[in-house]
Amino acid sequence: MDAVDNSQKVFAAKDTDLKNIQQTIQEVSDEFDQQQQKAVSTQIALSTHYTQAVANTSVELPQQFDLAAIKILSKRILIN
Model's pTM, two decimal places? Predict the structure, then answer.
């Protein structure tokens, strides 16, 4: 009977170890999924920001050049 009791105890301990390992794997997997979602969200945000910055620059820069040209021409007209 002692051998059977010992075997059952060993089996129970191994079963507990296995459950702990499975739980740890699940926790790591969940954490990985969360980090991956954060990375995708960050990538989307950066892409959106970059797209807006490029769009703003392509509109604002020509306007700034136009204003600079008008100021230069105005000064030339005033000088002449």
Answer: 0.53
